[in-house]
Amino acid sequence: MLFNEIYSSYFNVVAEILARACSGELKQSDIGNIVSKKAFGESILNIPASLKNGEWLLLKDDMTTPIKSVPTMPLTLLEKQWLKALEQDPRIRLFPPSFEGLEDVEPLYRREWIEYFDRYSDGDDFEDENYIENFRLILKALREYRRITVDFNGRHGLRQRKDCIPYKLEYSSKDDKFRLIAISGDKRGKGYYTLNLSRIKTVRVLGHYPVEQYRQPEPESAAITVELTDERNCLERFMMNFSHLEKQAQKLDDLHYRITLKYDKDDETEILIRILSFGPIVKVTEPDYFISLIRQRLEKQEKLN
Amino acid sequence: MAYSELIKSFEKIREYVSQFYVFGFKSRSEYTSKSARSYDNERRRIESWLGDYMQFRHEKGAKNSFLALDTRSVSHNPLYNAFKAKSFTDNDINLHFYIFDILAEGCEKSFRQILDCISEDYFAVFDADGEADESTVRKKLREYEKLGLIKSRKQGRELLYSRCDDIADLDSWQYAAAFYSEEDALGAVGSFLLDKFDSPPDYFSFKHHYILHALESEILEQLFEAMREQKSAELTIYIPRSDNIRIHNLLPLKIYCSTQSGRRYLLGYHYRLRRMTFFRLDNIKKVKLLKKDDNYEKHFENAEKYKRNLWGVASTSARGTDHIEMTVYVADGEEYIIRRLDREKRYGRVDALDSHHFRFVADVYDATEMLPWIRTFTGRIEKLECSNKAVTETFFGDFDDMLAMYGGDGNAV
Q1: Starting from the edge strand earliest in sequence, which strands make up the sheet with B349-354, in order?
Q2: Coil vs helix vs strand at A57
Q3: Are residues A230 and A300 located together in one domain of the fold?
Q4: Domain range holding A204?
Q5: B104 touches chain A (CB under 8 A)
Q6: CB B352 within 8 A of CB B327
Q7: Does residue B132 sit at the A interface (CB-CB below 8 Å)?
Q8: Co-location of A99 and A134 in the same domain
Q9: Of A98, A114, A120, the CB nearest to B257
Q10: Would you call A163 an interface residue with chain B, using a CB distance cutoff of 8 Å?
Q11: Chain B residue closest in CA terms to A139
């Protein structure tokens, strides 16, 4: 059962408090610190009080506990079944975890029960040995705060080499691809770049970099405002479709809505064609240059009709 | 009842999180189906769990709460917090820590021994009156056995309890759990696993990431159970258009996930309609498992065959399939359009007519479903033909409307 208190933030936080109490190191101030760091906004009003006022018989006034061993909980059957189900996923080899102890566990589901029906078909080859090796090297560099050198095929097929600091491995479920987001040393450009992992030929892990000197990349963002008419369930479709973006919505009247979407400037073409896919029930009202992009497509189409 | 940030059932909060996250334009007074106090409590809870992402806007004298978040910027889905806010009793938390302490380091104890330990080693320390309640402890042990946390074996007339074995190397799962907790269909479980690590890795980010799927986790867990046991299920379905609830009995067979629209669907064999039927997961309110269906394998095979002409999830056409052909013009230097056609075509095929003209051909159950995709090629479509005339009429009609909309009449929406 997934919705169960054993997975709750409260149980995890109390386990951590008791672990410290077990080792005789718990101070009153630690409780507040642990709760603030690991629980919810208002948990600070509940957890310390419940431990103190005798509702939970786990911690004594002198910050000791009758619990003798550091609290641990074995994995639940659900957790084991979930891990076991991942054995069938081709991407699992990128990591690769140990399945020891899961031999007799029935997977939570079978891979063939799930259809990603609109996923693009040119996703990465997750079973390619070179790809796996590159992925693992980048992950190692991320873990150890190291620079890397990557050799890759550029857009026009030319081999290129870059020194960089890996920032994230970004996965898109729609594209079924991983991309490396890396911070470049070049101060003139936007400071970071994105590289499809499948285009990387080799990765070499270099030395450590001073973490404090590098700020996380901030993509250049842009925004569009649209007005939509809630016909054919359009509002719900539109809001779900773009739910992964930061947005603000405003109801104009019972049928009309104004929505502002923020997106990464690099994704402009994608946003443009997604807006086109909604047809006339969505109208871009700002900015003008985005409206011009739509007009250009419409005019091109008019000539072809 | 006094307010608590914890919740007993997930159903109520599911709707509020969805409204705040997906829509975010409603004011307090617009949540008409619930009382004002209920709204205040739910909003306060969500703020407590997801405070960093909660924003407010004052509009026409009313305060609108909404969740503002670009999912690309987070490595861990914050909505999983809702699953970590289950309420519990004092006994639940006390017994949880007592039982695992008593059974620590491979200890095996009988029920009576566990009961005595609770009274003597824990209750007595706090001068708590009386002994541990037998039926409460028995119930908790039974529950933990069902969850796979402890196991029992019979010795004579007694049951001996011990902890279940852990997997050999949980640490080796850190990175996989960080990735799959976001990417897997039931990633909430991975999020629970990540809580076991001091600082979960944040090396991954996710584009086109629909975090709202988290809210369907409980429903999906039950559907997987039905599928594992090849059982039929009674589904309580919410119908948004009529704001109604309907009950449907079907055999759950597959989960269809859209990576582009944010929706997920259950495909199952509908007993009354005698055909394959889709239901959106976010419209399924309850799942009740019924009996095993001996024809499961046959239905599953049919579901596999069924997908051959399925563009999305619509199969309302009783007349068979629609034949559709779209010819796209590709200018010099626009080879990426050919690649787009190829990777996005799903079940159709692409024929090169000459170096600048490419024809996409497909037979699908319901070609009207393809209209949004076809529109993404606006500016390049030389020819569009479909055996279902409604498709071409809608496409060209909508196109004319768009031309008018962006052409001159600035007030048209």
Answers
A1: B349-354, B357-364, B322-329, B381-386
A2: coil
A3: yes
A4: 129-213
A5: yes
A6: no
A7: no
A8: no
A9: A114
A10: no
A11: B203
Whether residue A108 lies inside any domain: the answer is: yes
**What residues of chain A lie within 8 A of the CB of B376, using their CB?**
273-274, 276-277
> Looking at the domain that runs over B90-163, which CATH code has it been given?
1.10.10.10
Nearest to B122 among A8, A66, A117 (CB): A66
Q: Do B375 and A243 touch (CB under 8 A)?
A: no
Chain A: residue nearest B149 by CA? A76
Question: How many structural domains are present in chain A?
Answer: 3
Measured in Å, how far apart are chain B's first and last C-alpha atoms? Answer: 47
Chain B CA closest to residue A58: B94
Does residue A288 belong to the interface with chain B, where contact is any CB pair within 8 Å? no
Q: Do B413 and A41 touch (CB under 8 A)?
A: no
Angle B323-B327-B331 from CA coordinates, rounded to 5°: 160
The contacts of residue B345 (CB under 8 Å, 6+ apart) are: A121, B360, B362
Size of interface A-B (CB pairs under 8 A): 381
Q: What's the predicted TM-score (pTM) here?
A: 0.94
A-chain residues within 8 Å CB-CB of B228? 106, 108-109
| B343–A121 C-beta distance less than 8 A | yes
Residue whose tokens read 């270099």: A206
CA B238 to chain centre: 16
Contact list, B240 vs chain A (CB under 8 Å): 233, 236
What DSSP string describes B211-234? Answer: GGGGGGHHHHHHHHHHHHTTEEEE
Question: Closest to A302 (Cβ–Cβ): which among B170, B180, B403?
Answer: B403
Task: Indicate whether A8 belongs to any domain.
Answer: no
**Among all chains, which residue has been given the structure tokens 């997997």?**
B167
Please tell me if residue A211 touches chain B, with a CB cutoff of 8 Å: no
Tell me, yes or no, if A49 comes closer than 8 A to chain B by beta carbon. no
Sites in chain B below the pLDDT cut of 70? 1, 32-34, 129-130, 316-319, 408-413
Query: In this structure, are residues A21 and A63 in contact, taking their beta carbons and an 8 Å threshold?
Result: yes
Cβ-contact B166, A74 below 8 angstroms: yes
Say how far apart CA A44 and CA A62 lie, in whole Å.
20
- Please tell us whether the domain made up of B213-309 is placed in CATH 2.30.30: yes
Q: Do A235 and A267 share a domain, yes or no?
A: yes
- A9 domain-assigned: no
> pLDDT, tens digit, for every residue of A142-188?
999 999 999 998 877 789 999 999 999 999 999 999 999 999 866 55
Residue A238 structure tokens: 């539109």
Are A226 and A207 in contact by the 8 Å Cβ rule? The answer is no
* Range B322-407 classified under CATH 2.20.70: no
Sorted by where each begins, the domain ranges of chain B are 11-74, 90-163, 170-209, 213-309, 322-407
Determine the pLDDT at residue B34: 60
- Per-residue pLDDT tens, chain A, 305 aa: give them: 899 999 999 999 999 999 999 999 999 999 999 999 999 988 999 999 999 988 999 999 999 999 999 999 999 999 999 999 999 999 999 999 999 999 999 999 999 999 999 999 999 999 999 999 999 999 999 999 999 999 998 877 789 999 999 999 999 999 999 999 999 866 555 678 899 999 999 999 999 988 877 777 888 899 999 999 998 789 999 999 999 999 989 999 989 999 999 999 999 999 999 999 999 999 999 999 999 999 999 999 999 98
**Strand-strand pairing, A159-172 and B204-207:** parallel
Do the bridges between strand A114-116 and strand B244-257 make them parallel or antiparallel, or are there none, so unpaired?
parallel
